[in-house]
Recover the amino acids of this structure.
């Protein structure tokens, strides 16, 4: 007599999966995030893993399952955040929320050292990350692992710089063992580090933006003084070539204190109205376009 194989009870299996899903969501060790898109990422990732487990006789332990899920959740979340950072306008609320969440999630993952200048090295690292995040390619099978390695690599060498009193820029991709193909980044130790406290994310972002604005201002000031293409001197009222944009910009923007329109008009033997109108109608729009070339982003 042939042995009768009992059919799989699909309903019982579904109930077991639903119970497991509830238990996973309640786990305090599961990655937590208040980022708006995270709930969708969590649901999709859980659904993916539950489908993989369907029909598997030996289910992994809860601890092992949470560890696997967290790795996948980090990868999915980081990919989503980098996608937003690349698509949203910098300084926009969407961009700031994504950057804030990315730095917040990196907080417990970066390494820490007992060196007294470590906090300064960490500050430089976050400042560097905010300005260079576009150089990281998140399209890999282990986004979390490669991102943490990238950030920790820069942090490690900035700590070394401060320890030795050097400020030389070191390439993390520079080979240090050509036979083994190892780079500086590959040789960073994973020992004797602890997670730091990351304070003032918003202040760091604001500081980075202020530094970028300062750089644009310095470039614009040099451009005004040199007027390499002559476009500033060509910008003048038709009958008054001496009232050109370069001269007005030097008087209004570069002089300390800035000259008032009455004083500028007197030097040009013109009325205040001519100078005032030309400044606001043509000079400022031109200067704004030049500033945008240097990376200025208007609100």
């Amino acid at each position: 007599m042939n042995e009768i194989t009992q059919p799989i009870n699909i309903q019982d299996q579904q109930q077991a999966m639903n119970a497991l899903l509830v238990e996973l969501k309640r786990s305090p060790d599961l990655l937590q995030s208040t980022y708006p898109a995270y709930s969708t990422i969590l649901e999709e990732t859980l659904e993916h893993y539950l489908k993989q487990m369907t029909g598997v006789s030996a289910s992994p332990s809860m601890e092992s399952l949470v560890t696997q899920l967290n790795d996948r959740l980090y990868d999915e979340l980081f990919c989503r955040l980098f996608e937003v950072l690349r698509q949203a306008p910098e300084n926009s609320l969407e961009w700031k929320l994504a950057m804030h969440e990315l730095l917040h999630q990196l907080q417990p993952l970066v390494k820490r050292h007992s060196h007294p200048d470590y906090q300064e090295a960490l500050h430089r690292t976050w400042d560097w990350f905010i300005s260079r995040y576009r150089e990281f390619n998140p399209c890999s099978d282990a986004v979390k692992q490669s991102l943490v390695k990238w950030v920790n690599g820069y942090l490690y060498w900035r700590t070394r710089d401060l320890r030795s009193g050097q400020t030389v820029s070191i390439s993390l991709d520079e080979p240090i063992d050509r036979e083994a193909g190892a780079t500086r980044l590959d040789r960073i130790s994973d020992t004797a580090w602890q997670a730091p406290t990351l304070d003032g994310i918003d202040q760091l972002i604001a500081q980075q933006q202020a530094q970028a604005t300062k750089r644009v201002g310095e470039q614009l000031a040099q451009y005004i003084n040199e007027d390499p293409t002559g476009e500033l001197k060509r910008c003048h009222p038709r009958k008054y070539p001496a009232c050109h944009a370069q001269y007005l910009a030097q008087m209004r923007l570069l002089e300390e204190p800035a000259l008032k329109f009455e004083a500028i008009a007197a030097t040009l033997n013109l009325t205040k109205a001519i100078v005032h109108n030309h400044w606001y109608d043509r000079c400022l729009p031109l200067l704004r376009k030049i500033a945008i070339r240097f990376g200025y982003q208007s609100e």
Q: What stands out?
A: The first helix runs from residue 10 to 26.
